[in-house]
Amino acid sequence: MLKEYLNKLIDVIFPWWKGLTSSKKATFIGFTGLTLVIMIFLFGQIMKTQYQVLYRNLDAAESGEVIDHLKEAKIPYRLSQGGTAILVPGRKIQQVRLELASAGLPRSGSVGYEIFDQTNLGMTDFLQKVNYRRALEGELTKTISRLKEVKSARVHLVIPQPRLFKEDKKEPSASVVLYLNRNIPLAQRQVEGIIYLVASSVEGLSPENITILDSSGRLLSNRRGANGLAVLSSNQLEVKKSIEGYLQDKAQSMLDGVLGVNRSVVRVNADLNFDQLERTTEFYDPDNISTRSEEISEEKQSESEGADKENKRDVTNTKKTTVRNYEVNKTIEHLVNQVGNITRLNVSVSIDGTYKMVEGPDGKVVRQFVSRPQEEIDKLLALVKGAVGFSEKRNDVIEVVNIPFETFQNVWEEDQRLKREEMIKYWMKIGLRILLLIAVVLILLKLRKKYADWSKRYQARRRFLDAQAEVQRKAAEIIPKVSKEPKLIDHVRKIADDNPEEMAKVIKTMMAE
């Protein structure tokens, strides 16, 4: 069946190809080659293996172990970033990670308490201490690396030998190097958390003896004194920034709703009181006297009067004493001021004006700045006062200035221009892909149309060949009979009269041959 179909296709293509001119042949070859190239390119893009990062920032030893495992498992891989990053096909990345994790890879360059799983009876006391320090460093490294802001970490501990005398005693210290993710910044409070984590994990280690650096060598930890003043100053600065940012956002959102976005700028400087004051006050009220204590005593004494028994009588003496202690009312108040109270606000507001198009001295139309009316500025000032909580008792100051925002407008226009260019590039890529797809579809449609023409020609050719064969068959039957007749020409004429169409086809075939 297939062979017959191929023979029919060849019977159609060869005559069609011979009938084409040189220019049409070149055009057909070009279109066919372009179609094949496009199809191969699209197929390659679809079937192309997409490699994704398996691990990065590995040292040479870790990379070698991982690569050996990939070779044993016959998993394709690539190296980048100087061999510190390993890439594998994206469809296999999760499976590969699970297999490597089950094999204990990568080892992350740190060993935890599992170092003590291998017991060695001949281990010296010195090696035991070194292994303990290594295990402690490894466990801290693993814990710190769990933070989403930290890509990896290295911890170095210095644990001095215990001394007999106190004056010879040395305090332990620690150094931590953090490799941070670029998209996630590390806040100062998180640095403080890492410091206290390390300090709490090592016996005798105080927070002031811990140094933290990032991969750029920038110091993240502040040296603190015994009273933690550096920590307090850092927290105070964060509170100050938080309050100023909160007030700025309130005022800025208010002005943006009235003037529009990028038509105003608000800056707030807040003076805060971080002094912690405790006050005890006693109030006395002399007009309101109360009895503190009262003591009442009563004494009775009996005695007889008269010389003789007949005139003798009993006499009773009573003595009553009352003692009262009075006290003036006293009120005691114990006040503790809240830390971080706002003592004064300084607010600066710049407002853009309006613009109108005027004709310049050179005849060109330019934009001219128009200041806002004072009444409008006063209304905006009242809005800002209400937003930031303005208080005259604190001697707050608010300055509103109406100035042109030409520079800011240029920056905004440049930003918009860059965004438009990015959008144009994006849509150009989409458009090229769409045009490429349309070209492929048009080529396929053209080929389909040509195939339809080939099919029609093939059918016509087959009908012609069948008719020719039929004429030849009939002629083969008739000619022997005619050859016996004396009048051959008359018989041929008779056949032509009876079958004019078939005779014409025979003549055309003979002329073509």
Structural class of the helices, strands and pairings? alpha+beta
Domains counted in the coordinates: how many?
6
CATH topology of the largest domain: GMP Synthetase, Chain A, domain 3
Name of the level-1 CATH class of the largest domain: Alpha Beta
Radius of gyration: 52 Å
**In which range does the helix fraction lie?**
40-55%
Strand order of the largest sheet: 1-3-2
Cα end-to-end separation: 30 Å
Low-confidence stretches: 225-229
List the keywords:
three-stranded mixed sheet, 6 domains, alpha+beta, 513 residues, Alpha-Beta Plaits, GMP Synthetase, Chain A, domain 3
Produce the secondary structure layout.
Layout: H1 2-18, H2 22-47, E1 51-55, H3 60-72, E2 78-80, E3 85-89, H4 93-102, H5 125-145, E4 150-158, E5 173-180, H6 188-201, E6 210-214, H7 229-259, E7 264-273, E8 278-305, E9 313-336, E10 341-351, E11 354-359, E12 365-370, H8 374-388, E13 397-402, H9 406-483, H10 488-498, H11 500-512
Parallel strand pairs: 5-6, 10-13
Antiparallel strand pairs: 1-3, 2-3, 4-5, 7-10, 8-9, 11-12
